[in-house]
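Deliverable D5.2: sample structural annotation.
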Amino acid sequence: MKGLSLQEKIERILKNQNLSIGLPSYTIRGRWWFKPFDHLDFWDLGFFIGLLLKFDEFKAVGLKLLEMLEERIYPLNHNLGFLFYSSFVPAYLETGSNKLKHRIKAEAERMASLFNEELGFIPMDGPGGDSIAIDTLASLEFLWWASREYGSFKFSDIAMRHALSSLKFLLRQDGSTFHICSLSKGPIRGQGLSSLSCWSRGAAWGALGFLRAYEETKENLFKEACERILRFAMSNVNEDGVPPWDFCDKDGPKDTSAGAIFLKVLSSFNGDFSLWRESLHRSLSIKYVAKEENWEGFLKGGCYHYHWKKGIDESLIWGDFFALDVLEL
């Protein structure tokens, strides 16, 4: 049985849902939970708009929904990059809007202002904090892009220095990663099984972030860091190639969103990783694409937050976002 395409699922959302209340975040028994536009945990609010902007027929709706985000000033933290790179940047590239151009630059300045010169990174716990998180590496895409767009060395310098600190504090010798490391308290569990385990989506964000750092700087140490993570992950998945939510809980729930992020990274590599890439692509596109008529998400088997029992074996909006890129939909 073949399920609805991602395009058809988006059409259903636009037809049946009141998007003035918020945007899809994760499903509950296959039905989207909509995160309010003013939610303090705003990091994923841009992904649905980013999805819309990838389809010609949905671009107008995506730009209209973006106005709901434009009205708000979001809290100053390391997640600004996720929000603005996934939605505002593609909207600006689509429209050339000066208003968006100025807003994006202002938000890049805000994110850059978080950089702590003494610590050498953007603290995930905000100004005055001393903790560095693996997911911030992927949020740096916003600063890399802003550096090119606005000709600002400051943005790329901060991104590179944060990536170097991530290499120092978050990447273990075997290629596994910490989620969070506090300079005063040591490793912190975060979303992982324990402070010493390896949360798979964090590792995927890390691999993506190190790959971007390599592409921007051509410094081989970042490519080598990315490859170390990939080798660790490849050796800790079963035959279907899809990561468990934490690599230290191999019999636990899967996280297909981590798989989709890894697959995006793997598209830049050949050789050693080709078999894993093929099995992961096959599993995501055949085994984990939702086939049920009433399942509103596209990619099943995600794990948003294990400890909060949120979005487990469900669809996650960023999983669908990356699936569009890597599954040739």
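Annotation notes: The mean pLDDT is 98. DSSP finds 13 helices and seven strands in the chain.
The annotation will be released with the project's public dataset once the embargo ends.
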